[in-house]
């Protein structure tokens, strides 16, 4: 379960047409979430990526340059959908799908118990079949009190009315 640290209200749109006015604009910053060892372990179990740097706290304390376990880079990416849900809603949407990613980078490791939040903007919006749109988001997953982010990516979603 994501552990939220503070709260905020996202933007609300009646329909796709009203949301399309956001093209090129910044969305509100998301909530801060603490990344716990339990979350990291659950991600390791789900993905079968059980490298010691992620799950062996004692070994990481001794052998890792970070002196701590770190979250999987792909865990940050996997959180983008949930984090975007909090910064905006479109009332008329009946279904949303992850469409893909572009230019994914992990500039900074996420140490256990650090807090992350999403900073995002709308890069592009295209009409697609079946009363839908394809949205390309510029996403930065920030680490509280760190200069470099955990993840920078273009995230693409398809939403349908």
Question: Any chance you could write out the topology, listing elements then pairs?
Answer:
Elements: E1 3-5, E2 11-13, H1 16-19, E3 32-34, H2 37-47, H3 52-55, H4 57-63, H5 73-87, E4 88-90, E5 95-105, E6 115-128, E7 132-143, E8 151-160
Parallel strand pairs: 2-4
Antiparallel strand pairs: 1-3, 3-6, 5-8, 6-7, 7-8
Notes on the structure:
By secondary structure, the chain is an alpha+beta fold. It contains 5 helices and 8 strands, in the order ββαβααααβββββ. It has a 6-stranded antiparallel β-sheet with strand order 1-3-6-7-8-5. The radius of gyration is 17 Å and the shape is elongated. The protein starts with a strand and ends with a strand.
Would you report the number of β strands? 8
The CATH superfamily turns out to be Hotdog Thioesterase
What percentage of amino acids are in beta strands? 35-45%
Rounded average pLDDT? 93
Strand order of the largest sheet: 1-3-6-7-8-5
CATH class categorisation: Alpha Beta
Uncertain residue ranges: 1-7
N→C terminal distance: 29 Å
What is the architecture at the second tier of CATH? Roll
> Which structural class do you get from the secondary structure elements?
alpha+beta
Radius of gyration equals 17 Å
Shape: elongated
CATH topology: Thiol Ester Dehydrase, Chain A
Number of domains: 1
Estimate the helix proportion, in percent.
Answer: 25-40%
Order of helices and strands: EEHEHHHHEEEEE
């Amino acid at each position: 379960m994501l552990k939220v640290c503070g709260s905020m209200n996202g933007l609300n749109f009646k329909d796709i047409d009203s949301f399309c006015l956001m093209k090129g604009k910044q969305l509100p910053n998301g909530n801060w979430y603490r990344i716990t060892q339990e979350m990291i372990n659950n991600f390791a179990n789900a993905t079968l990526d059980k490298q010691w740097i992620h799950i062996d706290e004692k070994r990481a304390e001794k052998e890792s340059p970070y002196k701590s376990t770190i979250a999987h880079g792909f865990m940050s990416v996997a959180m983008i959908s949930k984090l975007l849900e909090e910064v905006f809603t479109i009332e008329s949407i009946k279904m949303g799908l992850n469409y893909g990613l572009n230019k994914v980078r992990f500039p900074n490791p996420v140490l256990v118990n650090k807090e992350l939040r999403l900073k995002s903007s709308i890069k592009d919006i295209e009409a697609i079949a079946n009363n839908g749109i394809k949205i390309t988001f510029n996403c930065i997953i920030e680490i509280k009190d760190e200069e470099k982010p955990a993840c920078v990516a273009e995230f693409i979603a398809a939403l349908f009315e």
